[in-house]
User: Fold this.
Amino acid sequence: MPTRRKPDQNAPEIVTPTGAKTGEREPIDPRAQSGDYLTTAQGLRLPDTDHSLKAGRRGPTLLEDFHLREKITHFDHERIPERVVHARGAAAHGVFVSYGTAASITKAGFLAEKGKETEVFVRFSTVLGSRGSADTVRDTRGFAVKFYTDEGNFDLVGNNMPVFFIQDGIKFPDIIHAGKPHPDREIPQAQSAHDTFWDFVSLHTEATHHVFWNMSDRGIPRSYRTMEGFGVHTFRTVDPEGGTHLVKFHWKPVAGVHSLVWEEAQIAAGVDPDFHRRDLADGIEAGAFLEYDLGVQVLPDDGTETFEGIDLLDPTKIVPEELAPVQLLGRLTLNRNPTNYFAETEQVAFHTGHLVPGIEVTNDPLMQARMFSYLDTQLTRLGGPNFSQLPINRPHVPVNDMLRDGMHQTAVHTGVAPYRPNSLDGGLPEVDPEGYVQVPRLVEGEVGRGNPLSFEDHFTQPALFYRSLTPVEQAHIAEAFTFELGKVYEQAIKERELAVLAQVDAGLAAIVAEGLGLPVPTGLPEVGEVLPSPALSQVVEVPGPIAGRKIGVIADSGSDLAGVRTLRKALAKQGAQLLVIAPTGGFIGKGRSKEVVDRTVLTARSIEFDAVLVAAGTGHSADIKVVILLQEMYRHCKALGAWGDGIEVLTGSGIPEDGPGVLHADSADKTFAAELIASLGLHRVWERADLVMADAVAPVR
Ligand code: HDD
Assistant:
């Protein structure tokens, strides 16, 4: 029989393997190992891990070789199931600092308190591909943020698009089955350009708005640094006086919103499948931290759950920023790479149900289903119910949850009464009346399956999106539809999707139909005039920041290396990096003017660079790799430049000297650097956009 203890000594303590009591911030040993000697899992020192224990030099191997068996057994079980969606991801640690501007809409301390710093972990991902798939495929990107707040963990599990494919979570398995590779041959990997995807979305036309975002430049982001994020659903916030507000969360990247061009994305998928995760890790390592502002659109919680006729419970709808501006609440800075991919990026478990007082969910039927799925999926993926104890998932506040035992239990719980009320463990844990209490909301209605009528409008908002974009962005959408549907085998599916497009925008349908060689659907009602939302366009007219950008400079030992150094300095001041590309590795130049070669002509590929320059004095090379590099840069609408006689290398590779975005100067001086920085700040030279498009879909030509 357990003995009764004095209440003040009775608090049930949970002691973790590292010795910290639960709730205290654990001193995480990133290596999860200590000592300088190789040991078994039991701590036994080993003299040799390269030879199994054999009877004689020529074997056989003995069953008693416990080290061999332990090593192989553990290896055999190293893999855990990858995420059923968002399997491919990359992550970073960071900090969120509140501007204090949210105090009137939420009591959540991490948002309301000015200057409050909260640790975060962010995982970016693609949706459709397997863990080893390429980063730059056309897809939605996950943008999942875990805030380790003083009131427990809050997860904002969002995407880089503000709408979702479906309105009700019950269809989630269906859209994912349709988007994933075909079940017979398991192809294609990580893409939507196939029959089952287009079959589904043409039959479930609520997907149209999200499909438009996928087919737009948003489907192929330049980097995580230049990606917007959205909480998608409408959330309910509760202020300190108990007032409620409906909000939509936005992440606004400080570096602006930018994308790849489609050919570039395709090349990158082969040349550097790790393109986005490399950029994320390299940027942080170089000190060019990623920054985003968290903002909200605040909408009145007036009982209608609509705003200007837009149903706020429908996750396929946006509220244009012109109608409800995004108010900024704080800044997120990603400043630390994970130490171990598996322990952190793979094992992190996000959940829409990880909420803090002041932030609540709404009746959005997509969100309601998510509230079940995220907890449930971890049981298989992380092998049981104790995944919250993994260091990356552990809250940074005391945890006293009365949850006990189970697979992979790492806590050593004390006390005898994990129930309440109890009289044995001093009555602890107590409940806190100030803890998370949902605001009362009235629920009524007949039980049944079905949607509100307002969920039936599937086409107005895709039209709003399409018509708010610039011609070049619209051309990219036309190109993407034509490409993807061109990969579909079944003509009936293409025709059905063309009919969908015709109901959104007849002009777009006509371009795509022509590209597919199919008749333009006629006699269908088209969305009438819409009020455009310029905030949806990502084309900039004023140069933005260039931190994290990479600029290549083609040079050799005869080049003007002083000029290279001037440019490097000017670019470094902006957080951008200059990389020397030379015919062979090692160094170029001599003595104190020696320069390290960062890339050889063989290892450099255009996709890595945001601009490429040719230094004065560089000997003209007819190397096909140089020609391909420069021509791809030109086709992909990126800045090119040269100083002095470096221009001859450009023109010798077929780049017109007076082409748009081709910079040249006599020397690599400050003026040249400023011109380059401005050109990089515009992201692309869109005047060249049609160079990389088929005639049928290049209306800008
Ligand atoms: Fe989901 C993962 C985002 C709808 C079920 N989802 C997952 C991740 C992100 C999103 C970013 C990866 C998290 C990570 O990096 O670990 N999901 C969304 C958004 C949605 C959405 C923005 C709609 C607005 N998801 C959604 C629905 C369901 C799920 C409707 C099921 C009913 N999602 C899951 C999941 C995943 C997941 C199966 C897979 C791995 C995981 O959760 O941890 O539970």
